[in-house]
């Protein structure tokens, strides 16, 4: 059976992830890249592909892939839903309230979509295992390590990990040590300290450290290359037009 061809646009097409996503779509026989947007893109008009720096010039398409910046992602996804695109959102930085608003809008407009804080399988599994471990190890801290060009801290994955852990743990016994240097104990999400490292040579990595009397458990994942996110982006593109709502988390569309 032939799968009908799906058209795709990419917001953030000039970026590190946008370029990987464009390369991916080019390799998929059932998908065609018809447009790309970025504010500093050099406009290009080919017979079936329009690259533009003006969002309103983007052609209609089935799927809107978003790898832009935290400050615009909410506005972009509102635009995508209201213009008939199914959003596949990798950009981090949406607040919980913004996610709810987008979900309501998607339901109202009968437009399925996916928001994935991390498209990498190693990160999705880390979050699953960390959630399970939290039941037995309520005391936990997260260290996330990224390339220095990352615009947001903490990472979307670290926030999602902390939320998943917190939903599955009983009372923790946090340390009450005094900070003699401000910030040295990290920032907190739901009482879970998160430490954000930004260093050259790193791509995207996370460690979850659980401690209990006399023992510790460490779960770690590493994305050494942005190609690690592409299997997840491909799966999202394959499924997004069949989704009935704006789903959060790649784990919710994995078979
Ligand atoms: N969910 C996941 O698995 C992953 C998510 N990410 C997230 O994806 C996002 C992009 O990451 P990455 O590709 O590394 O970042 P880059 O900085 O490499 O790319 C950012 C892109 O956003 C564009 N952009 C900048 N400002 C605007 C704006 N005002 N409106 C629209 N587009 C804009 C840039 O365009 P221009 O060049 O014209 O400035 C560029 O194309 C980040 O939020 C990151 O956290 C990253 C990796 C994996
Ligand atoms: O900016 C990145 O690079 C990444 N961003 C996402 C995040 O904030 O969690 C996913 C991954 O960590 C790479």
TrEMBL record:
Main location: cytoplasm
Transmembrane helix as UniProt keyword: no
Molecular function via GO: 4-hydroxy-tetrahydrodipicolinate reductase; NAD binding; NADP binding; oxidoreductase activity, acting on CH or CH2 groups, NAD or NADP as acceptor
Cell compartment(s), UniProt: Cytoplasm
Domain Dihydrodipicolinate reductase N-terminal: 8-119
GO biological process: diaminopimelate biosynthetic process; lysine biosynthetic process via diaminopimelate
Residues at the catalytic site: 146 (proton donor/acceptor), 150 (proton donor)
InterPro entries xref list: DapB_C, DapB_N, DapB_N_CS, DHDPR_bac, NAD(P)-bd_dom_sf
Limits of the Dihydrodipicolinate reductase C-terminal domain: 123-254
Alphabetical UniProt keywords: Amino-acid biosynthesis, Cytoplasm, Diaminopimelate biosynthesis, Lysine biosynthesis, NAD, NADP, Oxidoreductase
Record: residues binding NAD(+): 12-17, 90-92, 116-119
UniProt enzyme class: oxidoreductase
Pathway this chain belongs to: Amino-acid biosynthesis; L-lysine biosynthesis via DAP pathway; (S)-tetrahydrodipicolinate from L-aspartate: step 4/4
Family membership noted in the UniProt record: Belongs to the DapB family.
Subunit relationships: Homotetramer.
NCBIfam families: dapB
Protein role: Catalyzes the conversion of 4-hydroxy-tetrahydrodipicolinate (HTPA) to tetrahydrodipicolinate.
Descriptive protein name: 4-hydroxy-tetrahydrodipicolinate reductase
Organism (species): Pediococcus stilesii
Taxonomic placement: Bacteria, Bacillati, Bacillota, Bacilli, Lactobacillales
């Amino acid at each position: 059976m032939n799968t009908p061809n799906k058209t795709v646009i990419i917001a953030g097409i000039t970026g590190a992830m946008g370029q990987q996503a464009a390369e991916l779509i080019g390799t998929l026989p059932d998908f065609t890249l018809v447009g790309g947007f970025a504010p500093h893109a050099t406009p290009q008009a080919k017979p079936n592909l329009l690259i533009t720096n003006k969002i309103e010039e983007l052609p209609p398409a089935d799927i809107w892939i978003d790898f832009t910046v935290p400050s615009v992602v909410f506005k972009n996804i509102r635009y995508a839903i209201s213009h008939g695109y199914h959003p596949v959102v990798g950009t981090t930085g949406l607040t919980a309230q913004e996610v709810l608003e987008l979900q309501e809008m998607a339901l109202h407009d009968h437009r399925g979509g996916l928001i994935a804080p991390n498209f990498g399988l190693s990160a999705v599994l880390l979050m699953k295992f960390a959630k399970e471990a939290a039941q037995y190890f309520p005391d936990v801290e997260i260290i996330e390590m990224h390339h220095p060009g990352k615009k947001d801290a903490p990472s979307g994955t670290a926030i999602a990990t902390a939320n998943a852990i917190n939903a599955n743990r009983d009372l923790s016994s946090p340390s009450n040590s005094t900070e003699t240097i401000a910030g040295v104990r990290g920032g907190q999400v739901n009482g879970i300290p998160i430490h954000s490292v930004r260093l050259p040579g790193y791509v995207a990595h996370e460690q979850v450290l659980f401690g209990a009397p006399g023992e510790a458990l460490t779960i770690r994942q590493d994305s050494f290359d942005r190609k690690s996110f592409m299997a997840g982006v491909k799966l999202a593109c394959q499924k997004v037009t069949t989704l009935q709502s704006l789903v959060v988390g790649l784990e919710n569309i994995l078979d």
